[in-house]
Specification:
The structure holds 2 protein chains of 2 kinds. By secondary structure, chain A is mostly helical. Chain A is elongated and about 55 Å long. The mean pLDDT of chain A is 86. Chain A is built from 6 helices and no strands. Chain B is mainly alpha-helical. In chain B, helix 7 crosses helix 17, helix 11 packs across helix 15 and helix 23 packs across helix 27. Classes of the chains: A mainly alpha, B mainly alpha. Chains A and B meet through helix 1 and helix 2 of A and helix 16, helix 17 and strand 8 of B.
Chain lengths: 113, 671
């Protein structure tokens, strides 16, 4: 008879299927990014409507852009890739391990059509 | 006879040579040897050379202090070498920086991962949860439990579930009934029940004792499933405690509308929640009129510390008329209609309580005394004294079992009762027990807590981290206990009267509601602005919900606080009269930098801007230029969690920006 393992099952459920890296990335995203890019990454955060151009819809951007590009934006800001200077450089604020964690979380937000 | 002996000799000889051969063969084809050979081969591809695995040997780490010997590295040969991070197991290197912080020579492996350290093959090491094995490896998602063995504080880095669990343990007050590490001297988790008879309505108390969740959805107090008789007796016992001199009530009529205005102005919602919205620091007020007596509320607002000296609420400087107004508003507004229909379930005697007369008139004096006596016994039986103080109930032993080594409890000793289809393990036991306390035993005394799924998991993590493992002193990690900041004299009086530390952190201790620790406020804020702010606080950051309340400080009080803060809460590394360092073209340079760096995305300056950080239109009146300079150079130094990025400014750039922002002052200063 297959015995239930309620605790382990609950732990797996609580992270919504995310691994440790993605959980950390989610926490960092909520703290630093969600205010402009929104809870779901759609670019509809609380501060989004004060900005022109609007913050990017990350569910689309992270699908087409490769990791190197996203890392550059997070580290050096959107100015470094030729866009507005509204997304500030977070390279000195978040360590590279944290930035990698954010990238791995952003990938989970991408909506597959 | 001879021939038989010879045959036997031959057979036995072959037999023993054969056995000898088999032994030799098994010695040379051990699992770990196979891995070490594979590793040599694999390492040529990854590091371009043969890794140090010659000669073939068992690698072990002997840890005297932990009484462990770990041989994991015999197969896990690449564990310490980053170049193997993409390899297959068992050569894959350890994830993260954990081995940098905990060198393997000093810690070994099993201290964190458990399992049989002495084994040299996969099965014996108990990589999986093998039944009947005493010590199996901790499943991958649960490793952070082991962090708690050495990291003794509430916040453990990289172990968020464990940290949240320890905070939940404190929040729900488990240490009230159970012995838990490091909480034996802590004050009781809930408020004292002395003089409760003055405070609450009988009807409310009966309902509350029956099920706290009916009154308050997120009630921390658990449900005890008391019988009707028990509730009646306990109610009488609790209400029998009253203020000897009776209540010194404020006389007069209150004005509802004025009260509403005052309530809003006082920003009660910063700390209190009202119908779920607002702060979480203080009780929910949405239905408070059904709970407290009007006379009590009047007295409370007049002197908040009269009933509970430890209370976190500050003393507002209301006049007596204002107290009447606010009470009128609160008793009228914060009443939920649902209460009126609850009477059908009320205690038997309550049904006679038609006109709201106190129950004493229906019950004889001696019967009442009997009820109170029974109530006291019930109070002791269920261990209420564990969480609540009450004069008359002397110090008793904690009513629940000790939890000090709960994580090490052998699974054979766990009483799962009638529950059969669950795997026997300590983690399942704890998880299911706190989820439904009567699941394993209908007669269990432990009450039912109202825990969210998240709480359940976090608490289980926290409890599992309490093991019987003896950790040597030099391995333990705990922050030094700082003595609490306890100012004396006039400032001390004001500091305690207004309860600054309920919301603000000062020199390491205090509340977390405000994002601004007061340690360097004197170096940060301009004196004139601070004085006006203390008298009339307003929203500096539009984005945050809690607001500093209007204390109605007198001018003298505000001046005293401002002088003290400006003199004492300073940080010498923040230059005081920084303006003299400004160069003539700094303001222009600063303006260009401000545009170039996109600061407007989060701050309002001029006509528009973002709604994340404070608006900067009059920042030159508020902040000292030395602070702006230091802040821009490294925001995280002063507020580790701030969203403000560290742009990596040079000192020239930061100075220019500081000059620009310091020039932003309010032009028209008419009062």
């Amino acid at each position: 008879m297959e015995l239930e393992n309620p605790f382990i099952e609950a732990v797996e459920r609580i992270d919504g299927g995310l691994n440790t890296m993605q959980v950390k990335g989610k926490k960092l995203y909520k703290q630093y990014c969600s205010i402009c890019h929104g809870e779901g990454g759609k670019g509809d955060g609380f501060n989004a409507f004060n900005l022109n151009p609007r913050p990017a819809d990350l569910t689309k951007v992270c699908k087409v852009r490769e990791d190197k590009y996203i890392i550059k934006v997070v580290t050096d800001g959107t100015k470094a890739v030729g866009k507005s200077s509204f997304c500030p450089p977070y390279g000195k604020t978040i360590q590279s391990e944290g930035i990698n964690a954010i990238i791995s979380y952003l990938k989970t937000l991408v909506i597959e059509n | 006879m001879d021939r038989n002996l010879r045959w036997m000799f031959a057979v036995l000889g072959i037999f023993s040579i054969g056995t000898f051969y088999l032994v030799l063969r098994s010695e040379y084809t051990q699992e770990w040897e196979k891995y070490q050979r594979e590793f040599e081969f694999a390492s040529q591809g990854i590091i371009g050379g043969i890794a140090k695995s010659k000669p073939k040997e068992i690698k072990q780490i002997v840890l005297d202090k932990f009484k462990r010997i770990d041989r994991c590295m015999t197969c896990h040969l690449g564990i310490n070498n980053v170049k193997f991070e993409c390899s297959e197991q068992p050569f894959k290197s350890h994830s993260g920086q954990y081995l940098v912080w905990h060198p393997i020579e000093k810690y070994g492996c099993t201290i964190c991962h458990e399992g049989q350290g002495l084994a040299t093959n996969y099965e014996d090491a108990a990589h999986n949860q093998i039944p009947h094995w005493v010590n199996t490896m901790i499943p991958a998602g649960l490793t952070q439990i082991s962090c708690g063995k050495c990291h003794l504080d509430k916040t453990v880095p990289y172990a968020s579930l464990l940290s949240d669990g320890r905070k939940a343990l404190e929040r729900y007050g488990c240490y009230g009934c159970h012995e838990v590490q490091r909480y034996s001297e802590k004050l009781k988790p809930a408020l004292s029940l002395d003089r409760l008879g003055d405070k609450v309505e009988r009807k409310w108390l009966v309902k509350w004792l029956k099920n706290p969740g009916d009154y308050l959805e997120k009630a921390k107090m658990p449900r005890f499933s008391l019988s009707q008789d028990e509730i009646v007796a306990l109610t009488e016992f609790l209400l029998s405690s009253r203020d000897k001199g009776g209540l010194n009530i404020v006389e007069g009529e209150g004005d509802y509308d004025r009260g509403r205005g005052l309530f809003r102005q006082s920003r009660c919602i910063s700390c209190h929640s009202i119908n779920g919205k607002g702060g979480a620091l203080a009780p929910e007020l949405g239905n408070i009129a059904s709970k407290v007596k009007k006379e009590w509320l009047l007295l409370y607002l007049k002197d908040v510390r009269h009933y509970q000296p430890r209370i976190k609420m500050l003393q507002y400087n209301f006049t007596e008329q204002e107290i009447l107004d606010i009470t009128e508003y609160m008793m009228g507004e914060f009443y939920s209609e649902d209460d009126a229909t609850e009477d059908e379930d009320a205690v038997g005697e309550e049904e006679e309580d038609v006109e709201g007369e106190p129950i004493e008139t229906n019950v004889s004096e001696s019967a009442l005394k009997e009820l109170i006596r029974n109530g006291k016994e019930i109070f002791i039986k269920y261990g209420c004294f564990g969480c609540h103080d009450r004069t008359g109930v002397e110090m008793q032993a904690k009513v629940g079992p000790e939890l000090k080594a709960i994580g090490s409890k052998a699974k054979e000793q766990l009483e799962f009762g009638n529950v059969e289809d669950v795997k026997r393990s300590i983690e399942n036991y704890i998880f299911l027990k706190i989820k439904d306390t009567r699941l394993f035993d209908d007669n269990a005394k432990m009450p039912q807590f109202n825990l969210s799924d998240e709480d359940l998991i976090n608490l289980t993590f926290a409890l599992l981290s309490y093991t019987k493992e003896e950790i040597p002193l030099n391995y333990r990690v705990t922050a030094k206990r700082k003595t609490k900041f306890n100012p004396q004299g006039q400032f001390g009086l004001l500091f305690r009267k207004y309860r600054c530390y309920s919301c603000h952190e000062v020199f390491g201790s205090g509340g977390e509601l405000s994002t601004a620790p007061l340690d360097m406020t004197g170096s940060q804020l301009k004196k004139e602005w601070l004085l006006e702010y203390l008298k009339k606080p307003y929203a500096v950051r539009p984005n945050v919900i809690p607001r500093m309340p209007r204390f109605r400080m007198t001018n003298d009080e505000a001046m005293y606080m401002t002088d003290y803060i400006s003199a004492v809460f300073v940080d010498d590394s923040i230059p005081d009269d920084f303006e003299r360092h400004f160069l003539p073209d700094d303001i222009d340079k600063g303006k260009n930098l401000f545009e170039e760096k996109g600061c407007i995305s989060c701050h309002i300056l001029g006509k528009g801007g973002g709604y994340v950080g404070p608006q900067l239109n009059a920042v030159g009146d508020r902040l000292k230029s030395g602070w702006i300079f230091k802040w821009l150079l490294n925001p995280q130094l002063y507020k580790p969690d701030t969203i403000e990025p560290n742009h990596g400014f040079s000192e020239d750039e930061a100075r220019a920006l500081s000059a620009y922002l310091s020039s932003m002052k309010q032009v028209d200063k008419s009062p």
